[in-house]
């Protein structure tokens, strides 16, 4: 299986080998090259879009506050159930 870049390269090389500007099928060759270029551009756009999505997700993970610090000096003593409820709310 060829990669997108390999397919594009193969299509373009046909022109260097098999065609000259006076060949009767030059328009067909140009059309095939244009299709290969468009396919390559679509793949590039998908890769960039996926990279952007991955980057956003990694940033979200980086910014996640996994462990909250509690300043116990500023909190009043609580009943055990109130403290458990507070921890459950913070966990959510």
Question: Could you list some keywords that capture this structure?
Answer:
92 residues, mainly alpha, 3 helices, 71% helix, rod-shaped
What does this structure look like?
By secondary structure, the chain is mainly α. It contains 3 helices and no strands. The chain has helices spanning 4-18, 26-63, 80-91.
SSE layout:
Elements: H1 4-18, H2 26-63, H3 80-91
Low-confidence stretches: none
Q: Specify Rg, calculated over alpha carbons.
A: 30 Å
Distance between the termini: 47 Å
Output the structural class: mainly alpha
Mean pLDDT: 82
What's the helix-strand series? HHH
Beta-strand percent range = under 5%
Share of helix among residues?
A: over 70%
Biggest sheet record: none
Query: How many H/I helices?
Result: 3
**Number of distinct beta strands:** 0
Shape: rod-shaped
Write a short abstract of this structure.
This protein has 92 residues and is mainly alpha-helical.
